Structure formats: C-alpha cells, structure tokens
Amino acid sequence: MDIQLTILSPPEITVEKAWVHAAEGYDIELVCVVHGDVNSEMLWYQNSFLLDPTDRRSMYPHDDRYSLIIRNFQQTDFGNYSCVADNALGRTKKYIEVSGRPGPADFISPALSGFLDHYNLTWTIESIPPLEEIKLLYRRLLMNETYQHPGKWHEYHIKPIPIRTDDQ
C-alpha cells in the first residue's frame, strides 16, 4: 500500500538576483523561485503596479521557476519589481531592483592580508557601459588579540581596465 502525503504551506520565494543591471535596448530576465506549494499563483509588479504581458514583456512559469522577460529595455522599465506568490494559505513577496547604475563591488580577495606592508585587493563590478573611474576608499586596521584601531581613510582614483564576459 502506497500512501501519498501532501503538505500544504504558504509559498516561500527566493530570487535568483535581488539586483539586476540593465541598459536601454537590452533584454533582461527577472527570476523568482517558489518553494513549497508549487500551485501558487505568481503576480509581477513594477513600482507597486500590477504588470500584464505586452509585446515587450512576457511572463513564463517553468515548474517552480517564474520568469519575467523584458525585451528592448527602456528608460521607463527601470525601478523596483516584486514577485508575489499567492495560494490558499498565504501570500509572499520578494523584491528585485533593476538599475542602470553599476552594481556594488564584489570583493574577491580575503578580508585580511597575510603581509604587514601590502595587500592585494581584487574585486569585480557589474556594469554594461564601461566604467570611467573607480573611487576606492581604504584604511589600515591595526589590531592584535585585544585591540583594534582603524586608521585614517584614504581615497584613491583608479582608471579601470574593461573586461567583457561571454554574455555581453
């Protein structure tokens, strides 16, 4: 005898990216993943206004993954998006910001240097147009087991070297 047990719960959502970089003329995809009851209804909003499909905007469900695709991105498409999953037991919302500004720096190097006199700092920044300048603020942190003393902030301007990825 086989028994099938279905546990009903309010939907839970995760977003693939909470911040999405976009530029006019490009196509973008926003993705929300629903966990739990996959029979939830998914609604998309831009700046709190309910979105409907148009000739440039499509909404696709695929199993637990829901996509909002915007083709030929326009200035009016920038803003805050939300995906709302709704079922009989509850409603859940997650937010995605779509911005034309470069993204925040993602520091790859370790937090502390193994050397006393230098530090190799490595980071990436997501941006569609090439960056013209990066302003780096840094300071030395003097510390031992019982004491931490942050030093004075220094500002350094860097002319970046553009690196293109395969998907650009």
Automatic annotation (TrEMBL):
Record-level Gene Ontology MF annotations: axon guidance receptor activity
Domain of life assignment: Eukaryota
UniProt protein name: Ig-like domain-containing protein
GO cellular component, one term: axon
UniProt keywords, alphabetically: Immunoglobulin domain
Keyword Zinc among UniProt keywords: no
Gene Ontology terms: biological process: homophilic cell adhesion via plasma membrane adhesion molecules; synapse organization
Ig-like domain location: 11-99
Matches recorded under SUPFAM superfamilies: Immunoglobulin
Secreted is among the record's keywords: no
PROSITE patterns the record matches: IG_LIKE (PS50835)
